[in-house]
Amino acid sequence: MRRTYDDLVREAATVSVAGWDFSWLDGRAGEERPSWGYSRLLGERMARARAALDIQTGGGELLAGLPTLPPVTVATESWPPNLRLAASRLRPRGARVVHDDEEPRLPFAGAAFDLVSSRHPVRTWWAEIARVLRPGGSYFSQQVGPWSGYELSEYFLGPHEGGHRDPARARAEAEAAGLEVVDLRSARLRMEFRDIGAVIYFLRKVIWIVPGFSVERFPDELRSLHERIETEGPFVAHSARFLIEARKPDGPAA
């Protein structure tokens, strides 16, 4: 039986969006994955590390799923619901979870970690990352690239600037902080939304696509998009991702 617009909206507007698990969208939305396999590559680096820090860990889903964690593993998170989820997942693995407000200064001593990681950080504080890395240590991150999800944000907000998450800028900022960029790759990936509930859930969870999104704010746009999907099929957008690895040169500890 086909679900009504009101049913789809009601469900998607009330389901929990805590954590960074998108399994609620299974069968309702899809997104291509970058070819490099961030989880696998991070797992390889974690297995070699002695002390690691994961910044903005979300609900700890990624770290908790890695085969091996270093003897010292610390994760930071700012949003209380995610903080609780991360703690429940990571403490049994021997990892410490620390509340952090995502602004400098990181609450750690200099040269404390030989690996710092972050998947989809809101912002990368390069000088702080360089400070907490040991000489010879690395920052490894998959980040949101320029114009990611632009078709979706344009639908709700109209034409706007969306190219500020530039890999070239990330390289320049890393180098300005004294790090050497040893890997930088980019990908543009197809996204499909197959019902309006999937759109609502995604925008509630990925809050930077349409800042300030709510069902109440965009009733006409949501109704129109629902009718478009019902008539024409999935709404297609494109995400952008880039992988960056930057190494702190060998030398005296900071």
From TrEMBL:
The keyword Transferase applies. GO terms for molecular function: S-adenosylmethionine-dependent methyltransferase activity. SUPFAM superfamilies: S-adenosyl-L-methionine-dependent methyltransferases. One of its GO terms (biological process) is methylation. Residues 53-139 form the Methyltransferase type domain. It comes from the Bacteria. Keywords: Methyltransferase, Transferase. InterPro entries: 23S_rRNA_MeTrnsfrase_RlmA, Methyltransf_11, SAM-dependent_MTases_sf. The keyword Transport does not apply. This is SAM-dependent methyltransferase. It comes from Nonomuraea thailandensis.
